[in-house]
Amino acid sequence: MKIYILTLFPHLFEPFFKDNLIGNSIEEGYLDIEIMNFRDFSQDKHRKVDDVPYGGGGGMVLKPEPIWLAYQSIPEDTRKKAQVIIPSPRGKLFRQQMAMDYSEKENLIVVCGQYKGIDQRIPVLLNAEEISIGDYVLTGGELPALIILNAILRFVPGVLGDIGSALNDSFTESPELLGHPSYTRPKEFQGLKVPEILFSGNHKAIDDWRREQALETTRKNRPDLDNK
Ligand code: ADE
Fold first, then answer.
1. In the CATH hierarchy, which fold is given to the domain comprising 2-153?
2. How crowded is the C-beta side of 96, counted as CA atoms within 13 Å?
3. pLDDT tens digit string along 11-20?
4. Boundaries of CATH 3.40.1280.10 in the chain?
5. What CATH topology corresponds to 168-221?
6. Using CA positions, which residue lies closest to atom 4 of ligand 1?
7. Where in the chain is CATH 1.10.1270.20?
8. Exposure check for the chain: N or C terminus, fewer CB within 10 A?
9. Which atom of ligand 1 is nearest to the CA of 113?
10. Which parts of 11-154 fold into alpha helices (H)?
11. Ligand 1, CB within 6 Å, residue ranges
């Protein structure tokens, strides 16, 4: 999968694409990530990328031209096949199913906003999906972009050694179910014992227990999810 990230802060991304599963996948050729600073496409003599909002109000709005020119510099066949994502608190709430769906795209283009957001003609022209990571407002789109990409890239073939482990994560088996608890050695730690069932070797009983635990946690932590 080839991914383009359009941002004013390229250096924020670099550490997240090194020395981890994503970094390994880049080295092994499963992923190719190109980070573009759209300030480089500003035609303003002061390299300005923002301006005051029409209609008044506080904050600054990212101008459409630099983002448009950065986007246009991406090869046309890539642009045609790409899903464009714009992180925004005004967007659709990001869910695991979206991560799975986007992982099947050949190309992703992620455009990171700042300040009061991006001129609204950009999502229209780029046919972008505006995506929110939650009901709170951050200072910019870079952290949401990293979160969204991380969730998507786990499902790209080759990125996770054991895709099976991703498939029983929270929300993956069922969009309405949190994951089950996990334990490893030692059998007893600070007086707390690993549940006996996990040593039984009875896979059906273990699956049933894990499901019951998942349901209980979901009811307690996420009563908004539909698990009657
Ligand atoms: N940019 C600022 N806040 C955001 C949010 N909650 N989700 C996505 N992008 C954002």
1. Alpha/beta knot (3.40.1280)
2. 15
3. 999 999 997 8
4. 2-153
5. Trp Operon Repressor; Chain A (1.10.1270)
6. 89
7. 168-221
8. C
9. 1
10. 21-27, 64-72, 76-81, 96-102, 121-125, 142-153
11. 87-89, 132-134, 136-138, 141, 144
Mean pLDDT of 214-222: 96
- Residues 17-27 have a mean pLDDT of 89
Tokens 């904050």: give the residue: 59
What pLDDT is attached to residue 227?
Answer: 65
Q: Which amino acid is at 104?
A: E
Ligand 1 centroid – CA 148 distance (Å): 11
Band of residue 112 on the pLDDT scale cut at 50, 70, 90: very high
Size of the chain in residues: 228
Lookup: tokens for 84: 């464009």
Tell me the per-residue pLDDT of 48-94, one tens digit each, with 9 for 90 and over.
Answer: 999 999 999 999 999 999 999 999 999 999 999 999 999 999 999 99
